[in-house]
Design brief:
Blueprint (H helix, E strand, L loop, with lengths): L8 H16 L5 H6 L5 E8 L3 E2 L3 H11 L4 E4 L6 E2 L4 E8 H31 L6 E3 L9 H10 L13 E3 L1 H7 L2 H11 L6 E5 L2 H7 L6 E5 L3 H11 L4 E5 L7 H5 L5 E3 L2 H4 L6 E8 L2
């Protein structure tokens, strides 16, 4: 799998700073302050307790160094790497209070994003050998979309549109409000700039036939069984990208991919991925 490019520093900083502020509040980690000497040093390992795919290591590193820039953070497993129970992810050493103050934020991000990357890899592996690509949706945690879509890329999937602003996706409610499918497409075509792609959601093969008479880029085939998807592929004959959506899970995704569709969008990648179980264990020394 190709490792995605790194997250922008500003994206990392905004997310982690907000999480640290939420956790530390106005007084900081009062347990560590009450029990650990200010100068105490510690060394700790972050390790996984489950098999999975890592994502979010840069957020974990930022969390520790935000509390103490002198902390040494050594990456053992990078974004996109497959890991097994007991695999060391990173070694952290430095001020004990800082390590414990950042621990939960670091593990929360690592666990959440690695869970998404792991589930995505399961879907990607399930359709191996077909021509289809697994893509995500906008069903993300509010405020964390950039991070969760990054995690999908770590797992080998690709990103659908990022938001309502970067591509036109005409869905059933748009069609109703616009007065019909063709009317909606024509309005979109006269409004969209030359860099903006247009996709249309259809529920029937008749709608597909109508949609591809217009200058569009992709068609979303909503909740169609494999037999109908195969007919859709034959009708489109490669003139537009075909995206299958709805009713997709690890049991059905292979059959969907084998119909010849180009894309399979899976909301579960981000809205239902279980967190990857990770833990931090430390030793300490006075310094």
């Amino acid at each position: 799998m190709t490792t995605p490019g790194p997250l922008p520093h500003q994206t990392i900083a905004q997310a982690v700073d907000a999480a640290l502020a939420e956790d530390l509040g106005l007084l900081g980690d009062i347990t560590s302050i009450a029990t650990i000497a200010p100068s105490a040093q510690a060394a700790a390992w972050i390790a996984t307790r489950q098999p999975g795919v890592i994502s979010g290591i840069s957020l974990a590193e930022y969390a520790f160094r935000a509390l103490d820039p002198e902390i040494d953070f050594r990456i053992e497993a990078d974004d996109g790497d497959s890991v097994f129970p007991g695999t060391p992810i990173a070694q952290v050493s430095g001020n004990a209070r800082a390590i414990l103050g950042a621990e939960r934020v670091a593990l929360n991000y690592l666990g959440r994003l690695s869970g998404i990357a792991t589930l995505t890899r399961d879907y990607v592996d399930a359709i191996e050998g077909t021509s289809a690509t697994i893509v995500d949706t906008r069903k993300t945690t509010p405020g964390l979309r950039a991070l969760e879509k990054f995690a999908v890329r770590c797992g080998g999937g690709q990103n659908h549109r990022f938001g309502l602003f970067d591509a036109i996706l005409i869905k059933d409610n748009h069609i109703v409000a616009a007065g019909g499918l063709s009317a909606a497409i024509e309005r979109a075509r006269t409004t969209a700039g030359h860099m903006v792609k247009i996709e249309v959601e259809v529920d029937t093969l008749q709608q597909l036939r109508e949609a591809i008479t217009h200058r569009i880029d992709a068609v979303l085939l909503d909740n169609m069984p494999p037999a109908i998807l195969r007919e859709a592929v034959a009708i489109a004959r490669g003139r537009v990208l075909l995206e299958a959506s709805g009713g997709v899970n690890l049991t059905t995704v292979r059959a969907i991919a084998e119909t010849g569709v180009d894309l399979i969008s899976v909301g579960a990648l981000t809205h239902s991925a279980p967190v990857l179980d990770l833990g931090l264990d430390m030793g300490y020394s006075d310094a």
